[in-house]
Amino acid sequence: MKKAVCFLVALVIAVGLIVTAVPTQVQAADGFTWTIEPQFDWAAEFSEGLAAVEVDGLWGFINRDGRFAIEPQFYQVSLFFDNGTTFVQDESGGQWRTIDRYGNTAQPQPWVSPFGLYVFMRDQQFGFRDADGVTVIEPQFRNARPFNEVLTAVTLDGDLWGFIDKQGNMVIEPQFNDVSIFDGGFIRVKADGLWGLFSVAGKILIEPQFENSWEVRFSEGMVVFEENGLWGYMDVYGNRVIEPQFGAAQIFSEGLAAVFYREDWKFIDKQGNTVIEPIMKASFAAGVFSEGMAIAIFSDGFSPDSNWAFINTAGEIVIILPENYTASAFSEGMAVVSNTQGLMGFISITGASTTPPATTPPPTTATNISTASDWAQAGITTAISAGLVPQTLQNYYTNNITRAEFTALAVLLYETITETEITGRTTFNDTNDINVQKAAYIGIVGGTGGGNFSPNMPFNREQAAVIISRLAYAIGQPFPQAAATFADNAQLSPWAADSVGQVQAANIMGGVGNNIFDPQGTFTREQSIITILRLFETLS
User: Fold this and answer.
1) Are 224 and 191 in contact (CB under 8 A)?
2) Which SS3 state, helix, strand or coil, does residue 235 take?
3) Which of 418, 461, 433 shows the shortest CA–CA distance to 447?
4) Rounded distance, CA 320 to CA 297, Å?
5) Domain boundaries, the chain
6) End-to-end CA distance of the chain, in Å?
7) Distance from the Cα of residue 158 to its chain's centroid
8) Which positions ≥6 away from 457 have C-beta within 8 Å?
């Protein structure tokens, strides 16, 4: 019971609830069915296809069918898989170790950043390598965090944290007692026992004033701030984007934020425009969106009884839970639900109505399809109809694709799946291509040396595999680790071997025949489009 109460309190804090009058039409558990029956003392959200669960004091991991992939046996676990591994502790006070998704002891994965550098350790000191495994910043730090697009936090000999750039230059001298990890251009910092907010622009946006780090609220490039009892939003540079006017305000999620305005909760976009009108006047408390669904809570305001529900981006009530059940946000299509006995199970998002993504281009008709090979024509037509192929690539399908052209496909896929435009830019000396700048900003492509990108350079198969792997990671659905099984594995470049194994296991890229991958072989437009379509279907 104690855990159930803690679970409810944590969720209330997370969504910043204000409970108001119950609408008369909320009577029963409409649209509610269990996907995995309640049977766990505790359950975490799904990550990389597995969810951590506790049974009789021991932790294990289940798959999406509710079966144990790793039987309960651990005293403590990290609740999320990352790049195919997680951390477990076998007994109280024991050492933590890394396991793979089958429960086997594994080598710790590098602390990867989607922005091109990852942390590694040598002789008990941390340094940074690029995606090709080349040391960029020699090990010299006592502690280090992953890079964002510009900076990361490190400590030297003492316990104070400062910030370095990608060349290893200390740009903010060590002065903070503790830091979090960069998230959307922001990082929480602690000074003199209090937490504040620091931005990638090198500014303190919120002076340290909070006892707990979670009280500093931000996401998707926007930070919530308070002035004279009203709440508004500022950007990473400290500019006011939406003036203080709300009685309460949530963080942005999937481009929307719930705000309490004139006795109603509603959802606004990043320009402050109302996107979802109040469902019913003074009737609900609103959470944040995850996978197109947000939690809403209905109560009479006088008793502990309540109904938790999920609404979609059209403001429609899609799922209503039984009275006094509680829930967490959706992750990988599943949400944790706790019943009145305190046992936890999962429900599925399947069947919930959603509106088309605002950023998805309208369907188009395949053009010049006769220039494609027979085997590729149906797939290309499907990809174009899904809005996955730029107009400039809808012809000459058997031509070899260039680095810039493949990057355009990757960026369009990213923005379609995430429903978010990439607003940042990383520039090169030899191209002003906006898609190249966007892709470099999110870390799925890099330069070829000397500040150049070489946009018209021919593109080969192992390069495609690397970008596909990075793209899945940047979207938030990384592929599990897997070793390639091709007959010509020895010809794979060391920096591409892991990615080739991942895309082969995910059935995104296969061989060219006779179990040959042909890593240095050229990649055509039609092959690229079909590959992007497979990734789209897998991640969607």
Assistant:
1) no
2) coil
3) 433
4) 9
5) 1-113+255-350, 369-539
6) 37
7) 33
8) 402, 403, 448
Helix (H/G/I), strand (E/B), else coil: 126 = strand
Exposure string over 167-178, b if 16+ CB within 10 A, otherwise e:
eeeeebebebee
Q: What is the pLDDT of residue 504?
A: 94
Cα-Cα-Cα-Cα dihedral of 98, 327, 223, 80, to 10°? 10
Q: What is the DSSP letter of 140?
A: E
Please give the pLDDT value at position 25.
32
For residue 467, count other CB atoms closer than 10 A to its CB. 23
Contacts of 139 (CB under 8 A, 6+ apart): 120, 121, 122, 123, 125, 126, 127
Residue 89: C-alpha distances to residues 55, 75, 92 (Å): 16, 6, 7
Q: At what angle do helices 525-539 and 374-385 cross, to 10 degrees?
A: 50
Dist. CA 313–CA 291, nearest whole Å:
10
Note whether 186 and 197 are within 8 A (CB).
yes
Residues of the chain with pLDDT under 50: 1-30, 280-283, 301-303, 351-366
Please, are residues 329 and 45 in contact by the beta-carbon 8 Å criterion?
Answer: yes
At 250, the amino acid letter reads Q
Q: Which two tokens stand for residue 55?
A: 């049974």
Q: Which of 447, 452, 446, 441 is nearest to 415 (CA)?
A: 441
Output DSSP code: residue 211: S
Structure tokens at 159: 């316990």
Give dist(CA 77, CA 96) in Å, integer.
9
128 vs 134: CA distance, rounded Å: 9
Residue 120: per-residue pLDDT: 80
